[in-house]
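Supplementary notes (optional reading)

For those who missed the lab, this is the record we used. Protein: C4-dicarboxylate ABC transporter. Length: 376 residues.
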Amino acid sequence: MTRNRYVRTPGAAVQGLTDRIRQFTPNWFAVTMGNGIVFLMLNALPVHFSGQRTFAEALWCVDIVLYAVFAAMFAARCVFYPETIRPLLHHPLQSMFLGALPMGLAPIINGIVLFAGHDSGAATLAFELWCIDAVAAVVVAVGVPYLMFTEQSHAFERLSAVLLLPIVAPEVAASSAATLAPHLDVATARFAIGAGYALWAISVPLAFSVLTIVFFRLLIHKLPHRDLAPSSWLTLGPIGTGALGLLTLGQAAPLAFAGTPLASVALLARDLGVLGGLLLWGAGLWWLLTAIFFTLRYRAEGLPFNLGWWGFTFPLGVFTLATLGLYRVTGFAGFAAIGFALAMLLGGLWLVVLSKTLRALAGGQLFHAPCLVPAH
């Protein structure tokens, strides 16, 4: 939720490629997160329409291209402008978006087995990429907080749910492990599921401690600046992903561990996954309603567009997937109805954010790194 304003100043020069590389920020990977959760949601819908899978697969392909372009630009910034990396790592907002790098890759990995699973090498490729993604998620989840504790400057009144971004990355990888497991050989599936639970444990308890801080900060200092309005939805992310992870890991475990000494534990994990998913879903419902009320209040004040608007999509998307997952395991029609309504909301928000992003990109105002602005 950076302050990249969609306001073209008079006489502003059009940025060249080299300047765009220098000004490239990790916020852009939130675009692949938002697009990714939309095609995963389309694939999970309990209702079907003509062209549904084709559209989802097309979005997956677009996401691959976008991620490759963003990765190349970020790598080019690191190589050609290494002096800009230290300011990025020390910036209290920009550094949080490093968590978007592994999280933006996770939907693409899921798409490999969902849309290209007929290829015998697809599962192997997906697993290899998942290993890279999981390691990157842990590095970010440990490294960024370490910088927060030792190098960055944070004031309590300026804190927001953006702090969750690097911490949530491991649990996103955990839910991805459950998607891959049914497509892997038994030994690899067991490893992925076990690692998935470890990744979940790294992320979710820590995320709830941050949610406590966010709640207390809201109580004392009220709502953050309107530029940070989309951060209200980030609180939904660790809860939705946490519920989805418990559900999917629990569903994958019995098959992977059948006939082993851990078979009974796997069955327990399945049952606890449903119970834990229900509990987390209820907690997420409170944060969802709060985010909606906050956004309506912000909207009355006027919401300036920035790349942080992609925060409206991914957290809502994972909560939607968790809702649809609960419908599949419980058969309760209420979850199907709520999930469908949330999917419609997600689709509407995605279209709005995508259109504004394209307009702002055409205006040449989205490549701006606040960490490179001299302090006054």
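If you only remember one thing from this example: The two ends are 21 Å apart (CA to CA).
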